[in-house]
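Quick one: structure tokens for this chain, please?
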Amino acid sequence: MSFSTRHIQKRQQQRGISNETLLLAEEYGTPKGKKIFLGRKELQSALSDCEQELEAALLRKKHLIKAIDQGGVCLVECEGHLLTTFHLNTRKRG
């Protein structure tokens, strides 16, 4: 975030606007001249992006839990080619 003056800190406190909301405005807002607007359209778009990221994170979590349940895996590769894979909990042979 940019340097904040005493003036903006005072206005934030008076208007109940948090630093997190200002960070969202900087990230998702629409700049017009020296102003940055964070309206309903931008907020809905940001929320949609956040929900998609959350869904992807939950799916990744599901795959991680499954890999843990399987005891982990080993992936063998050579010069960019995937050769084989096996579970880590298999008995070691010879």
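The chain has a mean pLDDT of 92.
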